[in-house]
Every structure is written in structure tokens, then in C-alpha cells.
Write a structure and sequence with these properties.
By secondary structure, this protein is α/β, with parallel strands linked by helices. The protein has 2 domains: 8-161, 3-Layer(aba) Sandwich (Alpha/beta knot), CATH 3.40.1280; 176-234, Trp Operon Repressor, Chain A (Orthogonal Bundle), CATH 1.10.1270.20. It has helices at 26-33, 71-82, 105-112, 150-161, 172-175, 209-227, and strands spanning 8-13, 38-43, 57-58, 68-69, 92-102, 116-121, 137-140, 194-195, 198-199. 22% of the residues are buried. Bound molecules: 6-chloroguanine.
Length: 235
């Protein structure tokens, strides 16, 4: 059976409030309103086995700094969320971690064809290693350290949700994306035709569609050579 692609995305976090703005505004917010993605954010504390204080972390065995998220709340969260799906549909579980695979446009495409993604955000020193057997993929957004997995999860959600057909109105702006076409984007201009003595390139005003297309491709390569020559190198 052919998958229809991403339909549902669940995020488990200790700070669900952080997601309110970024995933409710703009194109992602519209995609949710239009029912193109069922995006749910969960509070890990709701799945704590500690009834009284809803504590989810504890000190590391062996000593050392910081706290570690205990495996049981994560296990319960995964189990409860999985149970809200159908028997055949299982979420692909992703743990946001600086140790993960670097997120690229190629990887975003691989995830955007999965019907259901469940994203775990780490915090403190991380998750108890024993929960990793329930994780399908570990993903990082770059070689720098953040305080937690929330911002990476938002970046991840944004990049996969915009690949769902219909989220970005013009399909052309997806195929022309930097990193997808192999080059960066060409320069864009809008009115006025002359702004503070700076003119718009004449070819764009010519109405000659082939000439415009040729110019744009040429510009895209020139921009890439100047700013990101590594993208043009053969791998
Ligand atoms: Cl996914 N988490 C944290 N804490 N830091 C990061 C990251 C993830 N990706 C890059 N830095």
C-alpha cells in the first residue's frame, strides 16, 4: 500500500508551552487549521509514574552533574500516544539529540513520507539509555549545544510539515528550494522598479520568459559559487 505521507506529528516535551507560538502561526498554523497535519504537543509530566510530584528525572548513577530523565515516564508517554492510533499505524519515534544524525533537506524528505512521527525532546543530561531501544532515529539540527530538544523539535516539525502537499501553496517554491535544486535561490525583486537609485535587472522587466529563466539559473549558480561552493562539489 502506498503511504499518503505525513498525517500526524506528536511531540513529547517537558515544556509544551514553548511550542505555542512557532507551531500556531504562519504556514504551520494554517496547515493545522486546514487539517493537513494533526500536530499534538504532550507534557511528559502527564505520564509520570510519580503521582505526587509528577517528577520525571533523577540523579545519574555513577555520579556526575545534572539530572537524567527516567525511562518509565517516556515509556508511558510512548505507549499512551501509540494507543491513540490504529492497530496498523505505528509512530516512527525520533529523539532530538546533539548526538543524532544531522538534519538535512534530504533527511526531511525521508521523514515527510512517514505517516506518523513522534518526536521526543531531551533535557538535562539526557534520557536513560535503556529507553533508546524504543527510539527509531536520533536527529540533531547542527553542531552546537542547545539547552534542550524543544527548539530542534520546532525546526524539525517546520521542515517536515512544509513538505506535506498543499501546505506551501505553490509547489514550485518547494522544487526550487535551496538544497533541493542543488543550488541556492536566485535573487528576488519587487516594486518599485527603481529604489533609491538602484534598478531592478532589465531582463526581469523584459517579459521574455526564457531569458528570465536562463538569467535566474545563471544567478543561482553564481550565488552558490560565491556563498556555498561546497554545495556544488561532487560528493
Ligand atoms: Cl536535537 N538538542 C540539543 N540539546 N542541542 C542540539 C540539538 C539537539 N541539535 C543541535 N544542538
Amino acid at each position: 500500500m502506498k503511504s499518503k505521507g505525513l498525517e500526524r506529528l506528536d511531540i513529547v516535551s517537558l515544556f509544551p508551552g514553548m511550542f505555542d507560538g512557532p507551531l500556531s502561526e504562519s504556514l504551520i498554523g494554517k496547515a493545522r487549521e486546514r487539517g493537513l497535519i494533526d500536530l499534538r504537543v504532550h507534557n511528559l509530566r502527564d505520564f509520570s509514574d510519580d503521582r505526587k510530584h509528577r517528577k520525571v528525572d533523577d540523579r545519574p548513577y555513577g555520579g556526575g552533574p545534572g539530572m537524567v530523565i527516567r525511562p518509565e515516564p517516556v515509556y508511558r508517554a510512548l505507549k499512551a500516544i501509540r494507543a491513540t492510533g490504529t492497530k496498523r499505524l505505528k509512530p516512527h519515534v525520533i529523539f532530538m539529540s546533539p548526538q543524532g544524525r544531522l538534519l538535512t533537506q534530504k533527511i526531511a524528505h525521508d521523514f515527510a513520507v512517514k505517516p506518523w512521527l513522534l518526536v521526543l525532546c531531551g533535557h538535562y543530561e539526557g534520557l536513560d539509555e535503556r529507553i533508546m531501544s524504543l527510539v527509531d532515529d536520533e536527529v540533531s539540527i547542527g553542531d552546537y549545544v542547545l539547552t534542550g530538544g524543544e527548539l530542534p523539535a520546532m525546526v524539525f516539525a517546520d521542515t517536515v510539515v512544509r513538505l506535506i502537499p498543499g501546505v506551501v501553496k505553490e509547489a514550485g517554491s518547494i522544487t526550487r528550494d535551496s538544497f533541493q535544486s542543488g543550488t541556492l535561490d536566485y535573487p528576488h525583486y519587487t516594486r518599485p522598479a527603481i529604489w533609491r537609485k538602484k534598478k531592478v535587472p532589465a531582463v526581469l522587466m523584459s517579459g521574455h520568459h526564457e531569458a528570465i529563466e536562463f538569467w535566474r539559473q545563471q544567478q543561482a549558480v553564481a550565488v552558490t559559487l560565491r556563498k556555498r561552493p561546497d554545495l556544488l562539489e561532487e560528493k
